[in-house]
Structure to design on (223 residues):
């Protein structure tokens, strides 16, 4: 099993550009999450999904969108990138909400 | 929503000594209490967790204790080793089926 994979590993965006961060898991987990981690800080939940076709906002959803058309994939869309979105983005998955979350390797995003 | 605080924010101990990190939370409905470890430049990984029907859980040098009345739980690491140096996050989960991460504790083990 590859676990949770994320692409790209690193990306530089110009202000106003858009991009999609990809996340895939091969563990057949129902729950998937997107977090952002600013330097020296904890993880803040952006969006999460409890199954295909179901998504919900987390603590910091503004400026982002998600979709969950399959169990495996949970892409995160950034529209109109802003410098405040410079961060490391982690995708995670779990069997249920109160179980171990398995994290991907992260995507480092720099908005200039 | 859940308010989570970790103390201390940084902790430096001599190799071989013990380290304790405390996490306080506000949601009385919380019933799942994990600790994650994040090494520099790496992804967070679960190291130990406890559920509200248990007061203490131990796994080799690592233990977690829970005080639901006082709404706090603690991570205990004994016989610390250099590879224990990392940032540790508590992430209690309440009725919303989501983890809420604390701000992290940077643990440094001095040789």
């Amino acid at each position: 099993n590859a676990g949770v994979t994320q692409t790209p590993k690193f990306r530089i965006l110009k202000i106003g550009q858009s991009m999609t961060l990809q996340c895939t898991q091969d563990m057949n987990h129902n729950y998937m999450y997107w977090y952002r981690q600013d330097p020296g800080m904890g993880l803040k939940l952006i969006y999460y999904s409890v199954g295909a076709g179901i998504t919900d906002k987390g603590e910091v959803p503004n400026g982002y969108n998600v979709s969950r058309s399959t169990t495996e994939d949970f892409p995160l869309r950034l529209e109109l990138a802003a410098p405040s979105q410079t961060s490391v983005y982690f995708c995670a998955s779990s069997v249920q909400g109160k179980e171990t979350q398995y994290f991907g390797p992260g995507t480092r995003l720099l908005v200039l | 929503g859940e308010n989570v605080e970790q103390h201390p924010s940084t902790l430096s101990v001599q190799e071989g000594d013990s380290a304790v990190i405390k996490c306080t939370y506000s949601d009385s409905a919380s019933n799942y209490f994990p600790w994650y470890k994040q090494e520099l430049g790496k992804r967070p990984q679960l190291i130990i967790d406890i559920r509200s029907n248990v007061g203490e859980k131990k796994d080799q040098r690592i233990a977690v204790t829970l005080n639901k009345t006082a709404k706090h739980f603690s991570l205990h690491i004994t016989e610390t080793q250099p590879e224990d140096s990392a940032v540790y996050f508590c992430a209690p989960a309440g009725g919303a089926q989501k983890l809420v991460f604390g701000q992290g504790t940077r643990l440094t083990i001095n040789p």
